[in-house]
Amino acid sequence: MAQGPTPAAPPTPRPSGRSASAAPQSAPPAIGPEEVTGAQSIIRSLEEAGVDVVFGIPGGAILPTYDPLMDSAKVRHILVRHEQGGGHAASGYAHVTGRVGVTMATSGPGATNLVTALADANMDSIPVVAITGQVTASLIGTDAFQEADIVGITLPVTKHNYLVTDPDDIPRVIAEAFHIAATGRPGPVLVDIAKSAMQARTTFRWPQTIDLPGYHPVTKPHTKQVREAARLLATARRPVILAGGGIIRAGASALLRRLVDASGAAVTTTLMGRGALPDDHPQHLGMPGMHGTVPAVAALQRADLIVGLGTRFDDRVTGLLSSFAPQAAVVHADIDPAEIGKNVRADVPIVGDLVEVIADLLVELEREQAQHGKPDVEAWWRQIDAWRSTFPLGYDETDDGHLAPQHVISRIGEITGPEAVYVAGVGQHQMWAAQFIRYQRPRAWLNSGGLGTMGYAVPAAMGAKVGAPDRTVWAIDGDGCFQMTNQELATCTINDIPIKVAIINNSSLGMVRQWQTLFYEERYSNTDLHTGHGTVHIPDFVKLAEAYGAVGLRCETKADVDATIKRANEIDDRPVVVDFTVSRDAMVWPMVAAGVSNDDIQYARGLTPAWDRED
């Protein structure tokens, strides 16, 4: 996945679809075989980079680029209804395809509306290139109309960014942007281009090599460190592999499975790593952390070795850092050296591409096991199996007559199957989707993990469906999240993007309400959305869906859940929105409260499981 020290050529063009916009107008006057406008150079550069779709909205500063975009036979443009939606759509496309997603916006508010989507992609290591228009170069710094220093604004939330005022720089900068976004630790790159550079004439030259002297991601791990990691894995009695989203970004899922089978270690997959190892693998304990399974949390706390692969050891996984995994040696492998040791001290730090890291680790592990035999982990698995049988994932039926949200979400997964793509918003429904849907393959689960962005699901599902048109795509959203970006249903309807949206409607900001229940004496300050409970629906999501040209369905009884899901799955010519009326009193369990030790995980309200912490 990552690029090593030797510069490589930019991506070559790939077959791509035609523009979804109206028929091209007459072409601009010819200005020489190599001479183009800066705007034409932008479109030519996107074509050379292999871009087949751009999610965007035109405006004054980017308008010169939208004219030649209309003539492109290779780049399809999808007109979104909000720039944030365009950014999340590009991210969803990138997540399911492994390719760089592209979004486009104008200057000022158009560019600033992208900030949340860029920050989201940055936290979750999603490769995105954002092209923004900027005011004419001579006006930069004068507070011109719709001027914003988007390069300065996005500096902390992008992997890299550029301001282009010379049209001759356009092909080189765009080639570099795609290279940086896709290599090393993936991430978003913003290219801000002055309107004057778009309007000026230039000679188009696509670079054949990339020369970035200060950018050489390390891909090959250090042999000595890999050998030490193999030695520890071959001798540990209570080993746990903590697999993060980096496994999926690197395309290392098949290698991870080989490592799991060879090592005998228990495995947990983080929120971003769900699907990196099939959920039905016998050594898979589920998700760790704040809302992880008890066996996964307990195994990390009791481990004598943790092998972290492509994970940040973030606070939602570790709980109180000083109490995290007190008996464990830590191997930490990641493409980004800045992550190693940032939160948890690594006894064996390994910098490299996880494909190469795991491949080398497998060779060294086989050598260790040939010399010393396989470790005795039988007692460890007896303990883990006891936790599994005593503390399985589950939920209580509701007592208010409304649906159990866990039942709805689990049935969506069971009826639709593992080949679908599931996209979640943020909150209780996100955690239930991570817990109760069985993920059997990588790139089947999309969510806003690091930033926790409400409004992510619908536009990200739209991008995912564009990237994987033959897969069923479900957006599992909350009634709060849905109301932030539901306007992209219009984009889906007009552009024939038939996603399915399950609104887990508890008429509340559910996760905030859960915290108010647990920590604020049930004082529900500003979390009641007044939707779906009672006779009045504000808004009526069925009517709203129909207004956007989608199919609207409502499900209020358990007996209707399966039939409603099957009906939604049968509709494939337009978007479908299903309003599931669920209990507002349902809570996400297990739970580790913020800032406390993982040892204090609550299995259910008021129930904290105790596990033997003595050897």
Summarize the amount of helix as a percent range: 25-40%
Distance between the termini: 41 Å
CATH topological fold name of the largest domain: Rossmann fold
The major beta sheet can be summarized as: 6 strands, parallel
> Which segments are poorly predicted (pLDDT under 50) over 5 or more consecutive residues?
1-33
Strand order of the largest sheet: 3-2-4-5-7-6
Radius of gyration, taken over Cα atoms and rounded to an integer in Å = 25 Å
Structural class: alpha/beta
**Any idea what the CATH architecture of the largest domain is?**
3-Layer(aba) Sandwich
| Tally of individual domains | 3
Shape, please? Answer: globular
Strand content: 5-15%
Explain what this protein looks like in three dimensions:
With 615 residues, this protein is of the alpha/beta class. It folds into three domains: 35-203, Rossmann fold (3-Layer(aba) Sandwich), CATH 3.40.50; 223-390, Rossmann fold (3-Layer(aba) Sandwich); 405-581, Rossmann fold, CATH 3.40.50. A six-stranded parallel beta sheet has the order 3-2-4-5-7-6, sandwiched between helices. Helix 12 (294-302) runs antiparallel to helix 15 (378-390) and helix 16 (405-416) packs across helix 17. The radius of gyration is 25 Å and the shape is globular. The relative contact order is 0.11. The model is unreliable at 1-33 (pLDDT under 50).
